[in-house]
Design brief:
about 280 residues, alpha/beta, six-stranded parallel beta sheet, 15 helices, about 5% strand, elongated, C-Maf-inducing protein, LRR_dom_sf, Leu-rich_rpt, CMIP
Length: about 280
């Protein structure tokens, strides 16, 4: 019932009005935080939050202090950027320009997100004209770590991975996203991948069989709360370098688990709680 009221406040041209969507003081959350994708108020894939970003960035909040605060929301900002939200792309450029992000892998993820769309690529090119350091960062190759925001889909992942070089990617977290087995075709193109987190996704047997055939460098695999069954789990035996495996809350049987322990000599940590093998 409040949504239309908040929308009217958020897009109001008067600064004193639209600023009321922010927290009343530092450390306190406001409507801006509640409607952030992934939070309790967001039921529209970030449409309203994108409008909030647009108003704030074009008026009073393109400041380093505000951008520092967005560090905690970098995932939703990148997700909206992938979906071609102009305000979110502007935020990423501003964060890069003001150097509010210290982690180089995260910076590279922001860069590749921008380069995945025509508008973002243009904005980033203009930014690089002003920032020599960013050009040097990109020349070092792709990131080693990548975390996709919750609510990301197979299409979002494909768009991200097609936007730049990910040959150096070792660690990928897709936890709590909406990816399915369909994304396996993109995952098998990551030759250096050692850590893959699929916790609470819809990644199933078909995808698991495919990555087991190709990602032989995998050392850590998290399948907690995924719909995988014995049919797909049996194929994990091909991942001889696997050291850690999380099968918590999956349809794993005791028989298949015993077989995996015999065929995976490097495996020294395996979570099978809330399965038939527990």
């Amino acid at each position: 019932n409040m949504k239309n009221v908040i929308r009217n406040i958020a897009v109001d041209k008067v600064c004193d009005v639209h600023q009321t969507i922010l927290g009343i003081r530092e450390g306190k959350e406001g409507w801006f935080h509640l409607y952030c994708p992934g939070n309790i108020g967001c039921d529209d894939d970030g449409e309203l939050w994108g409008q909030m970003l647009q108003t704030l960035m074009h008026c009073c909040c393109k400041r380093k202090s505000f951008l520092f605060g967005l560090n905690k929301m970098i995932g939703p900002v990148m997700l909206l950027s992938l979906r071609e939200n102009t305000a979110a792309m502007e935020v990423l450029c501003a964060m890069l320009e003001c150097d509010v992000v210290e982690n180089n892998d995260l910076k590279m993820q922001m860069v590749t997100t921008l380069q995945s769309t025509t508008s973002g690529k243009r904005m980033y090119a203009e930014l690089c004209e002003r920032q020599i350091a960013l050009r040097e960062l990109q020349q070092k190759g792709g990131p080693k770590k990548l975390t996709l925001p919750s609510k990301s889909t197979d299409a979002d992942l494909a768009k991200m991975l097609s936007s730049g070089s990910f040959g150096n990617l070792e660690c990928l977290s897709l936890a709590f996203t909406q990816v399915t087995s369909a994304c396996a075709d993109d995952l098998i193109k990551l030759p250096s991948l050692r850590y893959l987190n699929l916790w609470s996704t819809q990644f199933g047997d078909i995808g698991l069989q495919k990555i087991s055939e190709h990602l032989h460098k995998l050392q850590v695999l998290n399948l907690c709360e995924t719909p995988v069954t014995d049919k797909g789990l049996s194929s994990i035996a091909a991942l001889k370098n696997l050291r850690k495996l999380n099968l918590n809350s999956t349809n794993l049987s005791a028989l298949v688990f015993e077989g995996l322990k015999e065929k995976l000599p490097a495996l020294h940590e395996c979570d099978v709680r809330y399965t038939d093998a527990w």
